[in-house]
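Section 3.1: Structural characterization of target chains.
Under the original work plan, the team committed to producing a structural model for every single-chain target entering the pipeline before any wet-lab resources were allocated. The record below documents one such target. The sequence was received from the expression subgroup and is listed exactly as submitted; it comprises 441 residues.
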Amino acid sequence: MTEVLDRAGNDATAVTKGRILAWSLWDWGSASFNAVATTFVFTIYLTSNSFGGKAFVSERLGWAIAIAGVVVALLAPVMGQRGDKTGKRKLWLAVNTYLVVLALALMVFVEAKPSFLLFGLILLAAGTLFFEFAGVNYNALLAQVSTRRNVGRVSGFGWGMGYIGGIVLLLIVYFGFIKPEVGLFGVTSENGLDVRISMLIAAIWFGIFALPVLFTVPENRPRADLVAKRVGFFRSYAILGRDIARLWRLNRHAVYFLIASAIFRDGLTGVFTFGGVLAAGTFGFSAGDVIIFAIAANVVAGVSTILIGTLDDRIGPKRIIVASLIGLVVCGALVFVLHDSGQAVFWTLGLAMCLFVGPAQSASRTFLARLIPEGREGEVFGLYATTGRAATALAPAAFALFVGIGNEQYWGIIGIVIVLAVGLALILPVKSNQEQLAARD
């Protein structure tokens, strides 16, 4: 197999199909947290009547995730910066990944009683925190498993693997433990045992599929000019400020992109976050129907992400982002207009929206990867996590605001569409590396 140098310049690192697969299996395994813990299983369990009134537990859940988000916003760029300079990206990926695995495993002890609500929320918040930290180093490793020519395909493949891994794991826990009255190993729903065992399965899943990247992809080698003497934690923030100023001087379009992507990425998250709520509340889906739609949505998003990732390297990530956001805005507006036309409308337009979500997410990662000055991947992807966290209230707030304005749930669709449209408007003037080079000629 032909081996080529990675784009970060680590001449000892060969980019091979095996390393790409090993890297992408972390995405596959991470579905245990994204799909099972935070989207379809554990958060729904925590907001059930077993833990108190829905309004009460939902408010506590929101505060728990918000606190974790604030901590991520404060710490992510410094964590990434230190990984770049110490050559320990993979070490910190391992530490944070297995702290997530630990949080997932401990969820097995969260019984369906009000007295266990705080414990469950702490585990979910801690898992969110460490998952975001792990993501900073995982995204930075993209530079070590790709080249300038194939970064789009590699990123799309990894993101698609995440969707497909979510499908497989949801099928296992849903049909193995949650749907049957008596599931595998005699597990029932008494005291939330079906959900709790599902979380243990999720922990094992992530723990296993996180191993290949740790054993296969070499540790990063920091650039000589980035290696500095060991500095204290608070001193790192002064260095961070200096690095942001340097990034602004070197490539201010990278800074522009961080702002634009924070907004449209929150809109993309809102599509999945509120899709199930709208399916049930506006279009009359049953709980089982929502799970089936979620699986179908992940199939569509995963396949489209992998296929369109091949176009990323040919036409550039910006075109994919712009086309995807236009598609989402149009489809979202049609869902609003045709909200009273039955479930077939939601199935058709909802799945059409899923065609665009994954490619936009993956292309966002590769757009930034192409803009980052070499050797600063962890630092800038830390800022990527920070800006994303800073904007996480936009889609939920816009959704709630328009529900209040229209006094109907489906009005929330307009809020999400507006967030996507603002992100689209902001990304249009941002120039890719190719556009910047053309402008200089």
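Residues 243 and 259 are 17 Å apart (CA to CA).
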